[in-house]
From TrEMBL:
Xref: PROSITE patterns: SPASE_II
Protein name, entry field: Lipoprotein signal peptidase
Organism, scientific name: Staphylococcus simulans UMC-CNS-990
Reactions listed under catalytic activity: Release of signal peptides from bacterial membrane prolipoproteins. Hydrolyzes -Xaa-Yaa-Zaa-|-(S,diacylglyceryl)Cys-, in which Xaa is hydrophobic (preferably Leu), and Yaa (Ala or Ser) and Zaa (Gly or Ala) have small, neutral side chains
Annotated transmembrane regions: 64-83, 90-108, 131-152
Subcellular location: Cell membrane
Lineage per the UniProt record: Bacteria, Bacillati, Bacillota, Bacilli, Bacillales
Pfam families: Peptidase_A8 (PF01252)
EC number(s) stated in the UniProt entry for this protein: 3.4.23.36
Length: 160
């Protein structure tokens, strides 16, 4: 059986996430000042205009050279993994597409503005979760999907 690449689907996912990410960030920048917040679902979801010069939770704030280098390496590794290891695995290719789009979306922000635009502000079980964006969501879903795929693959390949 010939293993294949799902180029059309992976390009669609990557471009759709990237376009949605960049559109929502541009809309927030255009319509809200930093710190403005609007309640969408009271006690659970707000749209809050925020800027982040670091990574998750603001760690490594202001280290643009570091983020540039790490993102280039990660994008290269994702491309390599897609070409060499994910052939014939539709869901793995989708997960890599989500990771690629998320990394690229935040990379574009850092290169263009020196910071990342965040706006999704949630309260989960009383915890004020750090504000994030579509690219961050894409990265998270991609990682979770890879973990699930690896878990099922390891169970399938266990020696009995």
């Amino acid at each position: 059986m010939r293993k294949s690449y799902f180029i059309g689907a992976t390009l669609f996912v990557t471009l759709a996430v990237l376009i949605l990410d960049q559109f929502t960030k541009a809309y927030i920048v255009k319509t809200m000042s930093v710190g403005d917040s609007y309640s969408v679902i009271p006690g659970f979801l707000n749209i809050t205009s925020h800027r982040n010069t670091g990574a998750a939770w603001g760690i490594l704030s202001g280290k643009m050279g570091f983020f540039f280098l790490v993102t280039i390496i990660v994008l290269g590794l994702l491309t390599y993994f897609y070409v060499k290891e994910a052939r014939g695995h539709f869901w793995m290719q989708m997960a890599i597409s989500l990771l690629f789009a998320g990394a690229l979306g935040n990379f574009i922000d850092r290169m263009k503005n020196g910071e990342v635009v965040d706006f999704i502000d949630t309260y989960i079980f009383g915890y004020d979760f750090p504000i994030f964006n579509v690219a961050d969501s894409s990265l998270t879903v991609g990682v979770i999907l890879i973990l699930i795929l690896l878990l099922f693959d390891s169970k399938k390949n266990k020696v009995k």
